Amino acid sequence: MSDTPLFKVTIDNITVEVPAGTTILQAARQVGGDVAPPAMCFYTPLEGSGGKCRTCLVEVSKGSEKDPRPMPKLVASCRTTVMDGMEVKNITSDRVQDARAGVVEFLLLNHPLDCPICDQAGECHLQDLGYEHGSSGTRYEFQRRTFEKHDLGKYIQLHMTRCILCYRCVFTAAQVTNSREHGVLDRGDHAQIATYIEKSLENDFIGNVIDVCPVGALTDKTFRFKNRVWFTKPVYASCDCDKCCGEVTLWMRGDEVFRVTARKDEWGEIKTSPKTGKTGWICNDCRFEKKKLSQWKVEGLADISRHSVIGQGKYPLLEKSNETISKVLDGRKPRLLMDIHSVSEVNRPEIDLSEINGPATSSIFKKQ
Ligand code: SF4
Ligand code: SF4
Ligand code: FES
Predict the structure, then answer these.
(1) pTM score, two decimals?
(2) What is the torsional sign of CA 250, 171, 154, 241?
(3) Fold annotation for 6-106
(4) In the chain, which segments carry CATH 3.10.20.740?
């Protein structure tokens, strides 16, 4: 058994026990749901990540059992470790909500918000933050900074205008590939991801920068503008690859593979591979070159949050309930029953929605 002591921490009135050294963010993720603060720059598999974006700010209303004084300022939960007896407020703190709205306003100062044409739309954490905390107008009176799009080799495009300078791609290139050639050049509003990234593109694992980018700044040129993610269906698949774990998510439409990515967990972070026990980074060959279904062994539907737009409209295995209304109501008669079929063609009872050949319905998952 580990000798690490367990600390009790209460986050939004929910108490969990975590090993000493755990950050508030990781403790909050154990609680899960909305209690976990958003994190745009922290990325568990990347050492040294976090502390840049301030989206994960929380209020520490009690420092610890020994020193119960509250922390005067909001703290970055991804960089602050828990103390025994600590009490933290995230969604229960007006200060935090107010500060987060301010952070989102800053992140969007120069951001184009061109979600309708952005490949990241539908799986973009900034889009979610903008929806939850953003305001409909801007107070910014200056011209937004813009950049030319940049082709980074034959696979990746950098659209610096959308970059939020989270440094994740820099850490990925430094830690996952063996030759980091890029970084953030300059500071303040001149800061940008340096174009020396081109040089690191020869590396077999550089495609992972696309997966870690929380916005649509780094995009896969083999998928760019080909489809919207919510029209595709993610399935887990694997292959015998001599470079990486070969465990991927295929993004399919019908039987066509549109995109290949690493497998991600509910926080958008690349999962640990059960095969290697390490982070499941995938190589460029698997990501960009294997777009034929015959090159993969499909394992099943990918886990997608039920709140995600990607999960919408994909019900090929829908089981229809056989229960009648009187059975549901324990034999009682409904007091008012509205017949929506008379006003809505869409709900005509003879239409079996699972039979409709929707855009994301693959024959692999059709009912036997
Ligand atoms: S990066 Fe996200 S918020 Fe920005 S344009 Fe793309 S989808 Fe919209
Ligand atoms: S390109 Fe993406 S991953 Fe890299 S710093 Fe910008 S937002 Fe972060
Ligand atoms: S996730 Fe904590 S500062 Fe960015």
Answers:
(1) 0.81
(2) negative
(3) Ubiquitin-like (UB roll) (3.10.20)
(4) 6-106
